[in-house]
Amino acid sequence: MIFIAGGTGFIGRHLIKTIQEKKISARCLVRDKERASLCKKQGFDTATGDVTDRESLKGCLSDIKMVVHLVGIIEEKGDMTFEKVHVEGTRNLVEEAKEAGVRHFFYQSALGASLSSWAKYHRTKAEAEEIVRTSGIPYTIFRPSLVIGQGDGFTEKIKELLSLGPVVPVPGSGDAKFQPIYVEDWVKCFLKIMDNPDVLNKVYEFGGPEYLTYNDMLKELMDSLGVKKPVVHLPIGFMKFGVPLIGGTKKIATLLGIKIPTVTLEQLRLLEVDNVCEIDSVEKNFGFKPLAYKDALKKFIHFPPENNYNI
Questions:
Q1: In a 3-state reduction of DSSP, which class is residue 282?
Q2: Contact in structure between 141 and 126 (CB atoms under 8 Å)
Q3: Residue 67 neighbours by CB under 8 Å, 6+ apart
Q4: If you classify domain 2-151+180-209+275-293 with CATH, what class do you get?
Q5: CB atoms inside a 10 Å sphere around CB 250
Q6: What is the distance between the alpha carbons of residues 203 and 201, in angstroms, rounded to a whole number?
Q7: What pLDDT digit, counting tens, does each position of 87-96 carry?
Q8: How crowded is residue 140: how many other Cβ atoms within 10 Å of its Cβ?
Q9: Do 104 and 64 meet the contact criterion of CB atoms below 8 Å apart?
Q10: Whole-prediction pTM value?
């Protein structure tokens, strides 16, 4: 049996759907009854707990041979900081896995993870990797580039942005490169590492089959949605200056029934940095060619987003 922490998040929902179809037994970590129902509908066991609360994890991993750790945040909210979720949460889950005798620990990191990164998101992902690597448990770590699909936060934020006004604002030049990979292709990669001794104690960096700038992805998304609006590039410094004002603006907009996507200074800065690896990384590591961005959009762009919980 495998144990999934983060099974009701964006990637987790796609994963549990696939492993249910393949009759793979799993236990999902959930924080409340609503999230539990999402896993139980797929026929999985559930365990109530939170990776940031070590005591709540006691006994959750009995009879588990593989832990799948998908929990992560892209924005700090209240006491849910990158340090608490990525670092402390991973440490708690790893310690419980050691006590339970787990034989394989999978961790979902991110392309760009580095202990020397200026970005707290990437730095804490790297710190979590270190905890996994030094745990003594055989591990596999994924470092994907941007993962897209039904319900992904990146695409949903851009869709909200497209609906706001007569023009589409773009932070900075929009020339930073990304390597978007379709979530179902991510799942295919994951299935390749299950019960495969050759993947133990390895880190895989991978992404889609093309390098696309933010501008490229925006154009493809607008074309797919049939949106025709002028794109306006705003100086990144100006947008950083405006971030503190967004909170108050968002409250007013909510009262008026208008949705404004949230943005942080770190997220703006990450839009200025390339996030790519070898162009044929999936073919080399997992033996198949993933979908191009345009083809992936056809698979999900006209479907409503699923509820996006973060465990």
A1: helix
A2: no
A3: 2, 3, 5, 61, 93, 97, 102, 104, 105, 106
A4: alpha beta
A5: 15
A6: 7
A7: 999 999 999 9
A8: 21
A9: no
A10: 0.90
